[in-house]
Amino acid sequence: MKFLSEIEFNKWPADRTSTGAILLLIFSLIYLISSNINPLQIQLALMLLSIVLVLVFMNKMNQLVLWSVLLGIFITELTLKYFLKANHHFLLVYMIMLLIIYNKNRNWENFNVNIKWIVVIVLMFSAIQKMVSPAFISGDFFYLMMNTGKFFKLILNFTPDIQEIIASNASQIRELEQTNPNTLKSITLQPVLPNLDIISHLFAWLTIALELVIAMVFIWNPKHRISHFLFIILILGIFFTRLESGFLTLLTICGIWLTESRKFRTLYIILSIGFMGLIITKIGFH
Fold it and tell me: Are 256 and 223 spatial neighbours (Cβ–Cβ below 8 Å)?
């Protein structure tokens, strides 16, 4: 892997190893800063300062030491706040560990295979977790999330009528939370869309099917265009469902390393930069 000072940035899409590493480094700095400091102005200032220092002085420091320090920080945070950390924190730790191993042995094939299996395992366990959840496979989970405005915000928030329904449902839930559970009081949420119960049920199984299909396709051939076409559909589907910007950034970086297509790699780069922008602006989840 090259030092950052040696990389020709206009050749990013062609150099997938360094491109993914640079984006992962920038994401790590953004994630580290945004997770531990509250004022947005301070976050932006420190983030920009960190990136500038890395870009200027990277040729004077050992990349192995840099990644090891970041890994130590993230593992420490994971140890102290194990049950509070999001799933992508675990994914970030695994990806940095693989980069450290790659820096030692320079075996690209092994690195690529490990990244492939990380993606496969994430998708497989995600699908299995959903299948063993009665609330998910019945569609009740999506039904609740959509009726309370927690899913598909980019789509539902454009309609005033739907916003009123969401506000009314949220008000009912708040009132229910204040009542004595022993009274067994129940509420009926007003659906934001016609036949939402059917839509939620179908969407739940479509999500499971898509994750399983993509996992199997990646096992078959993680470099094929079909694999990455489906992978990008999944990434965009997650984006429009819920702004999981941190998780999506890491998935796009994995895509950069796995694809051999310059066009797909360019798209992954654009998406990863966009997702990191959402983290900085606090629009998405970090």
Answer: no
The tokens of 197 are what?
A: 């119960």
Check if the beta carbon of residue 96 is closer than 8 Å to that of residue 24: yes
Q: State how far the Cα of 80 lies from the Cα of 62, in Å rounded to an integer.
A: 28
CA separation, residue 36 to residues 32, 33, 73, 177, 286 (Å): 7, 6, 12, 31, 11
Q: What is d(CA 273, CA 277) in angstroms, rounded to the nearest whole number?
A: 6
Nearest to 232 by CA among 280, 202, 269, 206: 269
- Which pair of structure tokens corresponds to residue 163? 């916003």
When computed from its CA atoms, the radius of gyration of the chain, rounded to whole angstroms, is 21
Mean pLDDT is lowest, of 106-110, 144-148, 223-227, for: 144-148
DSSP character for 191? P
Q: Transcribe 155-177 into DSSP letters.
A: HHTT-HHHHHHHHHHHHHHHHHH
Query: Residue 185 is encoded by which pair of tokens?
Result: 């009081």
User: Is the distance from CB of 252 to CB of 271 less than 8 angstroms?
Assistant: yes
Token duo for residue 54: 């890395």
**Could you count the other beta carbons within 10 Å of the beta carbon of residue 2?**
15
What DSSP state is assigned to residue 190? P
Q: What is the pLDDT of residues 206-241, one digit of tens each?
A: 999 999 999 999 999 888 899 999 999 999 988 888
Helix-helix angle 196-220:140-147, to 10 degrees: 120
d(CA 159, CA 25): 39
| pTM over 0.85, yes/no | no
| Nearest Cα residue to 119 out of 256, 19, 282 | 256
If one counts every other C-beta atom within 10 angstroms of the C-beta of residue 179, the result is 11
Helix (H) or strand (E) holding 21: helix 16-36
Token pair listed for 113: 């295979």
